[in-house]
Amino acid sequence: MILILLGPPGAGKGTQAKRLEEEYGLLQLSTGDMVRAAIAGGTAAGKTAKTFYDAGKLVPDDVIIAMFAERIAAPDCAKGVILDGFPRTVAQAEALDAMLARMDRRIDAVIEMKVDDEALVERIAGRFSCAKCGAAYHDRFARPRAEGICDVCGGREFKRRDDDKAETVRTRLAVYNQQTAPLLPYYKGRGVLKAVDGMAPIDDVTRSLRQAIGAARSH
Prior knowledge:
This protein is of the alpha/beta class. The protein has a domain at 2-26 and 79-117 and 180-217: P-loop containing nucleotide triphosphate hydrolases (Rossmann fold, 3-Layer(aba) Sandwich), CATH 3.40.50. It has helices at 13-24, 31-41, 44-54, 61-72, 90-102, 117-125, 166-180, 183-189, 202-217, and strands spanning 2-6, 27-30, 81-84, 109-114, 127-130, 136-138, 158-159, 193-197. The strands form two sheets. A five-stranded parallel sheet has the order 2-3-1-4-8, with helices on both faces. A three-stranded antiparallel sheet has the order 6-5-7. The two termini are 12 Å apart.
């Protein structure tokens, strides 16, 4: 099975991908991890990618596609893969489809994790953690029991990631909506797009993903 999870940063794709990996024996393929592994392993596509890396340039789409072809043919991908971070554009999706067709394979399901942008901003931008032990908190949903004191270690210093600032989250959402959201009508037209409520509780999202995968397998 070849599965793509779509949704903006913070929608929970990583969390759900890990659950699906364990349940179905799929392998999550992150573009960044795959590029680094191909370079380290000295594969044909890896050697080509290294020339771009060494020059400080982005690895072109055709080289990324060649890496996917190498990777999904490996024994540890026998049960299938979850694509993470690729494709990001319609042009990449078209190139990926063409490559898979040459291998007599196809995308089985593209599942959109639908979110409300402003609710997602609130969910992410409110996060902070204990600087000492890393315990996670949220301004609205999970404050320390005693204000200013970590429930776990009693620490009094907290920190927030730059990626969790509201303006940063909005910028990343805008990039997703501009560049990646056009994949939705593309995959809908190919009859493989399904959607789940990404704002639901984590376990509910997992159940919805199971149902979507089951429906894809039955076709």
